[in-house]
Design a protein that fits this description.
The structure holds two protein chains of two kinds. Chain A has 25 helices and 28 strands. Chain A is of the alpha/beta class. In chain A, strands 5-4-17-16-15-6-7 form a seven-stranded mixed sheet, covered by helices on one side. A six-stranded mixed barrel of chain A has the order 21-25-22-24-23-28. In chain A, helix 2 (about 110-120) packs across helix 19 and helix 7 (about 215-230) packs parallel to helix 12. The longest helix of chain A is centred in the first third of the chain and has 19 residues, at about 75-95. By secondary structure, chain B is of the alpha+beta class. Chain B has two domains: about 5-205, no CATH class; about 215-340, no CATH class. In chain B, strand 4 (about 65-75) and strand 5 (about 75-80) form a beta hairpin. The chains are: A alpha/beta, B alpha+beta. The interface between A and B is large, with 48 and 46 residues.
Chain lengths: ~675, ~350
């Protein structure tokens, strides 16, 4: 029996695990105690990571659609059919008619090769990773508002700080290993402030909970800035944008915003006092904030806070963004997004484009492509790698329609996800235990995964499938190993400079950027990208748009992206033992889960576990009620994707990021008949 | 059943001889630095200097995933059980881990004998290594499981300057020692005295995590733990299952069947009573729907006298792994303190 050191494949923490392998089969999982993230702990998902591997539902052979059915085929057949289908769309409708979706579950090497395949062999600029919508808070970058999304801090900062500010985050749900550190910090006396609609367990244990109403996040942070800047005069220096910033929050006195935010002035001032009294603050940010309306303003406001504190010798602030999937950070680093080349190279930067055109020996379009969300209904073909769009895109009804309307759909995965079940060609991939490669966690830690066994049947590594598909379309991508791909990455992606396989074998990998990368740093990398928080203060453009409740629609419905974040996710649902924990909500809440405060449930005569009629100005639907005292009175919460599919909420694209935001909406709730 | 002394320069040869008789499971330091119990191929692989291994012995008696039977139906229905028949010698394992086996013995050897566990158990020999260097999270003194065991081992070794003192705790242990008497010397009185002195010194080395087990046991057993404790505790638990999987005495499992060709396999997997769907029934009814109820059930099972009476000992050996492995703050040390004081920390 051998213990193979590798990394947990679920969330963005990147915990160190060992797979117990004997006779070519994996019999169990153990946590690594020496690993800097896991420290001897694993969450419910991690303890069952081995069940993904030796699993009867694994795809083992390529599948090709004949008539209504998907049938087994050889690799040659399947690749030929996929190449033919994609080529046909490319020649009849042009390269941009093909969309390519990469995966947080795939390695950096897989995603890099996919980016190259998309931009060169296919020639399409429409390349994205849909998992970033629900699982990745994008922190603002100065000037362009698009968001580079890098944490400036690291998990270990939680061990040595006096205040943790959780903004739109539920670490116990999204990144349990981060939550474990927060619990331990609390035991040592670190103070906690949580700003989230839901009073989840860490919020209940916090020194101050700010139960912000959906949509009012901007107002809440603005009020906090008001107290700090105007009442407590946090900003020492007056230069630059500080006066404009101060002016923009002048009206946001906590008493003025309390009705809208649902947070008492007293609580806001308590939070401000804790902030001012701290020496070292870690701000934990997540999608509860970044999927709120005006997210970029809210995030900019937080960024301002950090910048002001630095300028005024206030607390040192580290930002830690929670990332819900194992290699979402890496997927973005590798340029599987429509607006960057690998390494956040701007498409408008000639030097960067030429560097890649030279390395990839092909011309590149400088057009910004469609985001995952924008692709629906626009592209005619999709190549989906390691993703279930019916879960990761917000509106499953619209997604299903769009997928059905495609001329050609190729899916590549380890299980037959609901998306793959609709495909014309399905390509079986190797799981994390069956191949080598690297993943990058939420603190920019690049780590090696190690092959523990052979893939089942004819499943292959993702990058190899992509390269074979490219070859079938006359675009040779002559890579021979993961390591070779990674070496190319380190030469072309500036922030990965100095990261090579041998040093990565050390427990805990290497966080980028390395010293070598910092030395090589050139525009457009700001010091922020290099983990040095140097963001300038920017004035805020405030235009509060919370939905108003009325007598007809007395409750405010918010879609909570930190609630039930793994329910329905194909990988965890496929596990043999705990899969039930993540599928049971579909049984108990078949039309969607609506969480209500007990007083409201009683007021509107609906019962726990029973169906209710839910109406918004956009329409009416049925959902099942979950009575929970985690929800404030006057507010209703649904998991993000339940809210999306209800049809009750407007889905609008956030400026600049192409990400769909569900606008909080006023609703009424009543018994079904 | 007299104690012997195995000189240090004979330990490797003794180990090599064991390797010829059986699979030898010993603590090994992996390249990463973590120490795990596992099969060794050579004597030098044994890590004699370690605090606690990351995991207890449980995996070797009750694997995380084991095939228990195979059925085939190609005209004729056949069902074949799969047993693990390997002889195993556990060498240099900690007292807390050996003590935990006694609780598993009661679970699987009681009313419903479990042939899979009992088969492995019957073929297991335990050579414990007494502990002179507790890890910061250890509290075996509260678990009557160390640092030096009083009972429950086949042999217990103590590292002395002259060699390993070999205490005999069972007939199996005596037979094993006798078979290799040519390597051993009789133990002198001074060796026994040194062993007792080392035990006393080790007991003084324990750190912060006293589990106040006695007080917690009393309150649990007499129903004096304030109900609010469990309500509060549910905010301190993330249901990761770590405490369950790392615990030497936890044994919850679930069973799955799956098809393979015209037949299939039945497997047993570790499960955790803290998981929300653990006790959920097919109807959808869940007798322990609230996390508070699941936490109370877990600690009741660990510490209440009703269970201790059945098992012969309470179910916490104080290995401290739940303290390390807890994703939040609901481990044994935190909870027994909370039970005693009536409030979570």
């Amino acid at each position: 029996m051998a213990e193979i050191a590798t990394i947990c494949p679920f969330c963005g923490c990147g915990c160190g695990i060992y797979l117990h392998v004997s006779d070519g089969r994996v019999a169990g999982v153990s946590p690594s105690r020496v690993h800097p993230v896991s420290q001897g702990r694993l969450c419910l998902k991690g303890w069952h990571a081995h069940e993904l591997v030796d699993n009867p539902a694994r795809l083992t052979r390529p599948l090709v659609r004949r008539g209504d059915e998907l049938q087994e085929a050889t690799w040659a057949e399947a690749l030929a059919k996929a190449a033919e289908g994609l080529s046909k769309v490319r020649s009849s409708a042009g390269p941009p008619a093909i969309g390519v979706l990469g995966s947080a579950r795939c390695t950096n090497e897989d995603n890099y090769v996919l980016a190259r395949f998309a931009r060169t062999t296919l020639g399409t600029p429409s390349l994205d990773c849909s998992q970033r919508i629900q699982c990745f808070p994008e922190l603002p970058r100065p000037d362009d508002g698009i968001g580079l999304g890098v944490s400036t801090g690291q998990i270990a900062d939680l061990d040595d700080c006096d205040l943790i500010l959780m903004m739109g985050a539920d670490p116990t749900e999204e990144n349990p290993a981060v939550a474990a550190r927060i619990y331990r910090a609390r035991q040592r006396g670190t103070r906690l402030v949580a700003a989230s609609t839901r009073s989840h367990q860490l919020a209940r244990l916090a020194d101050v909970h700010l139960p912000v109403r959906p949509g009012a996040e901007m107002s809440l942070i603005g009020s906090l800035l008001h107290v700090l800047l105007i009442e407590r005069r946090l900003a020492g220096k007056e230069g630059g944008e500080v006066p404009a910033l101060r002016a923009s929050v002048a009206d946001l006195k906590p008493e003025n915003t309390a009705a809208e935010t649902g947070v008492s002035a007293e609580a806001v001032r308590q939070a401000a006092e804790l902030y001012e009294g701290a020496r070292r603050v870690v701000v934990v940010v997540s999608t509860g904030l970044s999927l709120a309306p005006q997210a970029s303003e809210a995030l900019q406001a937080l960024s301002n806070l950090a910048a002001l504190s630095r300028q005024s010798a206030g607390p040192q602030v580290a930002m830690l963004s929670l990332v819900g999937r194992n290699n979402l950070q890496g997927c973005r680093d590798m340029g599987v997004v429509p607006h960057y080349l690998p390494g956040y190279g701007e498409l408008t930067d000639d030097a960067v484009v030429q560097r890649f055109e030279h390395a990839w020996r092909a011309p590149l379009t400088r057009e910004v492509g469609l985001s995952a969300w924008q692709m629906l209904g626009e592209v005619k073909a999709l190549y989906v790698v390691g993703d279930d769009l019916l879960r990761s895109l917000p509106d499953p009804r619209a997604t299903r329609e769009a997928l059905a309307g495609l001329e050609f759909l190729v899916a590549q995965d380890i299980f037959l996800s609901p998306t793959a079940a609709m495909a014309d060609v399905v390509l079986p991939a190797a799981s994390f235990a069956e191949r080598n490669g690297t993943w990058t966690n939420l603190e920019r830690r690049v780590q090696r995964i190690h092959k523990a066994m052979e893939p089942p049947g004819e499943a292959r590594e993702d990058w190899r499938i992509i390269a074979d598909l490219s070859a079938a379309m006359d675009g040779a991508l002559p890579y021979r190993s993961s390591e070779e791909i990674f070496e190319e990455i380190t030469s072309l992606v500036p922030v990965y400079a100095g990261v090579f396989y041998p040093p990565l074998a050390v427990n805990g990998g290497i966080r980028w950027p390395t010293e070598a990368a910092r030395e090589k740093a050139e525009a457009p990398f700001s010091r922020e990208d290099l983990g040095i928080d140097d963001r300038p203060v920017q004035a805020l453009k405030l235009a509060c748009k919370t939905a108003q409740t009325s007598e007809q629609y007395p409750l405010l419905l918010g879609a909570d992206p930190t609630l039930a974040t793994w329910d329905g996710e194909v990988t965890i649902c496929a596990t043999l033992t705990v899969g039930v924990e993540f599928t049971v909500s579909a049984k108990d809440y078949p039309d969607g889960m609506l969480c209500l405060n007990p007083a409201d449930a009683q007021r509107y005569r609906v019962r726990n576990g029973r169906s209710a009629r839910v109406t918004s100005p956009r329409g009416e639907t049925r959902m099942q009620v979950r009575v929970s005292d985690e929800v404030p009175e006057g507010v209703a919460l649904a998991p993000y994707y339940h809210g999306a599919r209800s049809g009750l909420m407007e889905i609008a694209e956030a400026e600049g990021t192409g990400r769909p935001v569900l606008a909080p909406t006023a609703i009424s709730v009543g018994p079904e008949s | 059943m007299t104690a012997r002394l195995l000189p240090h320069d004979r330990v490797a040869e003794f180990t090599e001889r064991l390797l010829r008789e059986a699979e030898v499971i010993a603590p090994r330091r992996l390249e990463t630095g973590d120490v795990f119990y596992g099969p060794i191929a050579a004597a030098e692989e044994v890590a004699w200097d370690y605090g606690t291994a990351v995991e207890p012995l449980k995996r070797f008696l009750l694997p995380q995933r084991e095939r228990i039977l195979r059925f085939s139906d190609d005209g004729e229905l056949r069902v074949e059980a799969e047993y693990d028949e390997r002889e195993r010698i556990f060498l240099g394992v900690r007292g807390c881990d050996v003590a935990g086996v006694a609780v598993l013995d009661e679970m699987f050897g009681g009313d419903i004998p479990d042939p899979y566990y009992l088969g492995r158990r019957a073929r297991a020999t335990f050579i414990a290594l007494s502990c002179q260097q507790p890890d910061p999270h250890c509290f075996c003194v509260c678990g009557d499981a160390g640092p030096f065991l009083k009972r429950g081992y086949d042999q217990q070794w103590t590292k002395l300057p002259d060699g390993m003192l070999v205490e005999i705790g069972s007939e199996k242990g005596e037979a094993l020692a006798a078979a290799h008497d040519d390597l051993m010397q009789p133990a002198e009185l001074e060796h026994i005295a040194a062993r007792h002195r080392l035990a006393k010194e080790a007991e003084k080395l324990f750190g912060d995590y006293h589990s106040y087990a006695a007080a917690a046991m009393r309150k649990l057993t007499t129903n004096e733990v304030a109900p609010e404790v469990w309500e509060q505790a549910s905010d301190y638990c993330e249901e990761c299952g770590g405490c369950t999987f790392l615990c030497p005495t936890c044994s919850c499992f679930t069973v799955t069947d799956r098809r393979e060709g015209t037949g299939g396999v039945r497997e047993r997997h570790w499960d955790a009573c803290l998981y929300s769907c653990y006790a959920r029934e097919a109807s959808g009814h869940n007798p322990r729907a609230e996390r508070a109820d699941r936490l109370r059930a877990r600690f009741f099972h660990k510490l209440s006298y009703q269970w201790a009476q059945r098992n012969g000992r309470h179910a916490c050996v104080g290995c401290g792994r739940c303290v390390v492995g807890c994703m939040a703050w609901a481990h044994m040390a935190a909870m027994s303190d909370a039970m005693r004081r009536g409030v979570m920390p």
